[in-house]
Design a protein that fits this description.
CATH topology of the largest domain: Rossmann fold
CATH superfamily of the largest domain: NAD(P)-binding Rossmann-like Domain
Number of strands: 12
Strand order of the largest sheet: 2-1-3-5-6-4
Strand content: 15-25%
Order of helices and strands: EHEHEEHEEHEHEHEHEEHEHH
Shape: globular
CATH class of the largest domain: Alpha Beta
CATH architecture of the largest domain: 3-Layer(aba) Sandwich
């Protein structure tokens, strides 16, 4: 019997997940299909009931449902509970178990490059759901200090409290000052949507140093303005598509309990750009 998987969110048309997962099923000859399913923000509970009715095997969760989905789970893994959000859900006869692959997805490209995060200072741009997972990731890797910069200071302070709870040093700076002090940080991470569609750079890059690692989680376009400008400064670059691919592979393995075909998924993803 064909197993059906999905990604839920709103908007959802732009999602690359169906292409990535379906190419993996095809490559491995699996009787599975993966669809994009739009659920508007106020209709989450109703949408999930519909998915249960069609016997969905599992689904990924994207904006704006990652936090609200937590209320509809029967159980959650520790990463989910820590971050307070889920992006991968397994359906076992109506019993929904949530996982969060953001932390591992974020760390995967860093580990592939054998970069040591221990005692590193991090400049984190943004304070939304993705930023929480990134703070949890750096806490796991024993980073030094995280400076948070964000458009609204209030949200930044909530993230700083979360970092303190995990035993990380953390402080706030405004966006203008972030560009001035960027040279003091080993990691500069963009966790906002600034740069999407190739428009805008979240901070000034002129003080970014050669030995910095600039990581932009925006994956459309591949070369965001932040990445392009940081490349000119000689910084090491980590692309958003690398995190996206690592997350997709991790959820594939949660769904099917077999290793994900890295090359097939990578070629499909990069082909979409």
């Amino acid at each position: 019997m064909t197993k059906t998987y999905a990604v839920i969110g709103d908007p959802i048309d732009h999602s690359l997940s169906p292409a990535i997962h379906n190419s993996a099923y095809l490559f491995l000859g699996l009787d599975c299909i993966y669809i994009a399913y739009r659920i508007p923000s106020r209709e989450l509970e109703f949408g999930i009931e519909s998915l249960k009715k069609i016997g969905i095997s599992g689904f990924n969760v994207t904006i704006p449902h990652k936090v609200d989905m937590m209320q509809l789970l029967n159980e959650a893994d520790e990463e989910c509970i820590l971050v307070g959000a889920t992006n991968t859900v397994l359906n076992n006869d109506g019993n929904l178990k949530g996982y969060n692959t953001d932390v591992d997805g974020f760390l995967d490209p860093i580990r592939k490059r054998k970069i040591d995060c221990r005692d590193s200072d991090v400049l984190l741009i943004g304070a939304g759901g993705a930023a929480r997972a990134i703070v949890a990731a750096f806490s796991r890797e024993k980073a030094g200090k995280i400076t948070v910069t964000n458009r609204t200071e209030e949200r930044a302070h909530s993230l700083i409290r979360f970092a303190h709870k995990l035993g990380l040093q953390s402080d706030y700076t405004d966006l203008k000052n972030a560009g001035e002090i960027a040279g003091n940080y080993k990691f500069i991470v963009n966790a906002t949507s600034v740069g999407l569609k190739g428009v805008g750079c979240p901070i000034s890059t002129r003080n970014i140093k050669k030995d910095a690692i600039v990581y932009d989680i925006v994956y459309m376009p591949v070369e965001t303005p932040l990445i392009e400008e940081s490349k000119n400064q000689g910084a090491t670059i980590i692309y958003g598509w690398e995190m996206l691919l690592a997350q997709a592979m991790k959820s594939f393995e949660i769904f099917l309990k077999i290793p994900a075909p890295y090359e097939a998924m990578k070629l499909t993803l990069l082909g979409r750009f």
